[in-house]
Amino acid sequence: MLSVILIIVHVGHSIQSASKANQLSFGEQIPIDMSRVETIKTQKSEYSSESTVQPIRSIRIDGDIILGGVFPVHSKETRYYYGNKICGDIAETRGVHRVEAMMYAIDKINNDTDLLRGMKLGALIMDSCSTPAFALNQSLDFVRDLIGTSDLSGYQCNDGSVPTEKQSFRKSVAAVVGGSYSSVTVQVANLLRLFQIAQISPASTNNDLSDKKRFEFFARTVPSDHYQARAMVSIAREFNWTYVSLLYTADEYGDQGADSFKVAAKDTINGTYRQICIDDSKRVDTEKTKETKKAITELMQKMQSNHDYGWGQVVVLFANTDSIQKIMNITSQVMEEMGEWTVNGKKKKIIWLASEGWDRNNKNYMVDNLWKAADGAIVLMLKSPSIPGFDEYYKSLRPGTPTFERNGWLKELWREKYNCRFSDDPEWAGKERCENKTHTGSFHADDKVQFTINAVYAIAYALDAMYRDECPSQIVQNTWITRNSPKISNCDALSKIDGNKFYKNYLLKVKFNEGDGPASYTILNYQPDLDENGDIESNSTKAPYVEVGEWLEGQLTIKHELMHWNVRNNKLPLTLRVKNPQPASVCMEECKPNQRKQITDNCCWACVECHPYQYKPNDTTCIDCDLGLMPSPDRLRCEPVNDLVYMEWATPYAIIPTLLAIIGIVATIFVIVVFTPVVKASGRELSYILLGAIILSYLMTFILLAKPTAITCGIKRIGIGFAFSTLYAAMFVKTNRIARIFAQATRSAVRPCCISPLSQVGLTAALVGFQFGYCLIWLFVKPPDVKKDFEMVGRSTAVLTCNVPDHHFLYSLIYDVILVVLCTVFAVKTRKVPENFNETKFIGFSMYTTCVMWVAWISFYFGTKSNFMLQISSLCISISMSANVALICIFSPKVYIILFEKHKNVRKPDGEYMLSKRSFNNNRANSTYATSDEPSQYTSLLAEQRRKSEYSSTRKLSQPSTGSSAQDTFL
Ligand code: GLU
Q1: Quick one: where's region Disordered (predicted)?
Q2: 472-476, 610-614, 673-677 — which one is most confidently predicted on average?
């Protein structure tokens, strides 16, 4: 393969040096000997032309050495309704241009006295009609001599004479230039190898042709599709198209091209592995219109069913030239059927990424609605410099000149192109005369003209080298005389060429400029010139293919600003042009910043949400930011959290508990005020302790609601526990005292210990002191402070809290819970004590309510974890409610008596008096006279107990005025 590539470089260079050496200016008329030209006509059925002019099958130009040529002068006939015709319309660029390029090169070589000095090259050029079978049939002419068909003994002329062979015309060919379509080339190559005839193609790029075992005598001046596929993959990568579809024709070109693309799509490039995935791959035989339409419809439907970005919006196209026209035709039909014309161009539209099979000179791609299907296509073209000499030569072709007349196909082209007739044509009446027609306007030579000329030169150089090796004696010094003298003599080695030797020793060795790159492509973008209505401008002078980049030796350059999707309506001033974004051809849209890609296969992914506190170091990973940091809006890094919150006074969360606390404090003060002057009963110390604890509880609300500081945190930790322990310790001491008195009384008249007010205060202080003590130790062990809590509300917000978690604080209340439980137990135990001592009953009520409330609050507290304000608020309310319960249950009956039943608040001598009186009435002697409340209560309790036990037997005595005595020691 390497040697073949190098031919390109070498010959390109040679052409220039040869031109210079011979001082042959471009466009100069090359002298042509018309006696050496023969056109061979064929049966009409092989051609589709309706013209009654007999079509031409091949052309011959005599010479000392004959070169073969196979070119697609006609396209393949697909209009079956014309019968069994094989050849379709004449193909100007791919066919006639290449034929003329070969002629042009031969003329130049024949006029170059340095090359094959004295020997003239002739040609036998066949029309392949773009059909492999037809081309094979035609190619038999190249080998007719070799297979003995030149034996004329069996032939007779019309006049009865025996035909004589035109010996000079019946030479077998030295080498063949062609074919163009790989499918044709493969067939021709298979034939030529049998006869050891070297073949050199100026256009066939199929990979298989590089296989020297299969194609021993084949060489080419174009690179293999291996490189083209790599160039296409580079383009896809450049536009970030990772999910493309593939459409290719069922022939040597399409099959091999698609295979090369599939391989290249998986390749690493410069060490980076960026695979292009092929979403859907369709192999079509464009002669089967229904199947082709189905395949294209499926590709289009796939796009319709997906989002705007479109899956596989880009379709890589590896199709032979003739098929492309059909594919565009069918695509435009499908687009029309799907109502695509109304949709903004970027949507649901195939963007073709087409191989060099796409003929940019083919006007048929632009007719009718086909241009809409082709619009925006990216087309590869083998990089080749234009050859001004050939352009001039081609433009100067005019009927009547030898260069025109030697190529019979030019006449056909003229007839088709200018809709005219030559004077010797059978039906010329009413038509214009072709003789007057010459080329006008701009001219674009076919892309492979350079490669065709290269191929002819390669053969000429090889022949020259062989000539020098095999016939050295005939090499005469190149002087003015020798140059202008007739040829010296034939070289036998050249008249009967040893194909094997010629191919291996000479053709493959035509090379220099080693080190040059393997292949280069020009990248074109099809940008039809549109009018204001969005229709194609019929008389446009603008070239529809814009060069947007190139691929040189593996290096891609794209001028993005020239791409069609950037400039939709090129008639409008630049500022008003609608800018369309570059279409994406990906499996999925890019994920949002807060999402990561979960790769499902090499090119496809699902978008998965990252947690709100995670950032994305890359597209596929989410990582937690450290505490106190939150991801930046683009999620690329973490940033410190600035949002610091704490309870604010002006929210309902603070206002409601504050109001409750204030009301509670006012109520408590009211109780104290009402209570103090009239309190007569003993036990008031504990009552004051209780009232103090209640006030303290209310005050805790303000501590809890205040902005956390080391001081408020310290107070909170000690204060709440202290307030509650005081409250419940006092109640516990009260209930416990009564229970003990009661229990003792049932057993003996001995007074239980520690029932004096002082000892009760002492007991309460001891119980409270315990709590206070461990709270102090706790403060010492963990000094109070504040901290930012990032988890409480959500990590985006820092909550200013105390440095101990709230549940720790709840643990500190366990002691209070124990007190509450004990208190409740004793309240339950003493619930049956006589009504005048029913303070325990109220304490009981207070305890039950407290228990229920705290259980409810704890579940509420943990259920509202995410709302720290609600938590604090509920804690404040619960504390206030506990105080309320105590205040209401214990003190409201007393206040009621004081306010509304003042007469009941009379200090009777005391309960002892009652008891004595009752005892007296009941003949129960009890002379003990207690001066303090305690003994009197104690004794009256005993008396009551006894009274109860005897009540049933002396029923009528049990109607005393116990009403007032019940309240005797009420306060
Ligand atoms: N490279 C094409 C093939 O191998 C032929 C292109 C052309 O004829 O320009 O079939």
Answers
A1: 926-971
A2: 610-614
Q: What would the pLDDT profile of 579-599 be if each residue is shown by its tens digit?
A: 566 777 877 777 888 999 888
Cβ–ligand 1 contact at 221 (below 6 Å): no
Residue found under tokens 């035609």 = 138
CB of 220 within 6 A of ligand 1: the answer is no
Mean of the per-residue pLDDT values of the chain: 78
| pLDDT tens sequence across 218-264 | 999 999 999 999 999 999 999 988 888 999 999 999 999 999 999 99
Instruction: List, in order, residues 6 or more apart from 288 with CB less than 8 Å away.
Output: none
CATH number attached to the domain at 225-375+527-576? 3.40.50.2300
Output the CA 262–ligand 1 centroid distance in Å.
19
The answer to whether the CB of 130 is under 6 A from ligand 1 is no
How does residue 922 score in pLDDT terms, banded at 50, 70 and 90?
A: very low
Mutate to test the pocket of ligand 1, among 356, 362, 382, 521 (most ligand atoms within 8 A of CB): 356
Supply 476's token pair.
């005469």
The 10s digit of each residue's pLDDT in 381-417 is 999 888 899 999 999 999 999 999 999 999 999 998 8
Residue 558 confidence (pLDDT): 95
What letters, b where the CB count within 10 A reaches 16 and e where it falls short, cover 684-711?
bebbbbbbbbbbbbbbbbbbbbbebeee
> Which pairs with CB-CB distance under 8 Å and at least 24 residues apart come from 413-417?
413/90, 413/92, 413/96, 415/51, 415/53, 416/49, 416/89, 416/90, 417/92
> Which has more pLDDT, 511 or 482?
511
Return the DSSP state at 218.
Answer: E
Instruction: State residue 441's pLDDT score.
Output: 80
Q: Does ligand 1 have an atom closer than 6 angstroms to the CB of 878?
A: no
Cα–Cα distance, 642 to 800 (Å, whole number): 12
Nearest atom of ligand 1 to the alpha carbon of 446 = 9
Spans of all domains in the chain: 8-155+166-222+386-516, 225-375+527-576, 595-640, 653-746+778-900
Kindly give the number of the ligand 1 atom that is closest to the alpha carbon of 204: 4
Q: Could you tell me whether strands 555-558 and 545-552 are parallel, antiparallel, or unpaired per DSSP bridges? A: antiparallel
Q: How many CB atoms lie within 10 A of CB 242?
A: 22
> Alpha helices, DSSP H only, in 748-865?
757-781, 806-812, 814-829, 839-863
Residues in a beta bridge with 835:
none
Shortest-distance atom of ligand 1 to CA 357: 6
Q: From the CB of residue 631, how many other CB atoms can be counted at a distance below 10 Å?
A: 25
Contact 234, 269 (CB under 8 A): yes
Residue to probe by mutation, ligand 1, list 76, 96, 181, most atoms within 8 Å of CB: 181
Do the domains at 225-375+527-576 and 595-640 have one common CATH topology?
A: no
Query: Is pTM, for the whole model, over 0.90?
Result: no
Question: Does the Cβ of 452 fall within 6 Å of ligand 1?
Answer: no
**Residue closest by Cα to atom 8 of ligand 1:** 180
Asked whether the beta carbons of 109 and 115 are under 8 A apart, the reply is yes
CB atoms inside a 10 Å sphere around CB 907 = 11
595-640: CATH class: mainly beta
- Is the pLDDT reported for residue 811 higher than 90? no
| Per-residue pLDDT at 461 exceeds 50 | yes
pLDDT at 347: 52
* Burial track 753-774 (b if 16+ CB lie within 10 A, e otherwise): eebbeeebbebbbebbeebbee
356 lines ligand 1 (CB under 6 A): yes
User: Does the Cβ of 204 fall within 6 Å of ligand 1?
Assistant: yes
**Cα distance between residue 87 and residue 77, in whole Å:** 5
pLDDT of residue 376: 87
Confidence of residue 766 (pLDDT cuts 50, 70, 90): very high
Which amino acid residue places its CA nearest to atom 10 of ligand 1? 181
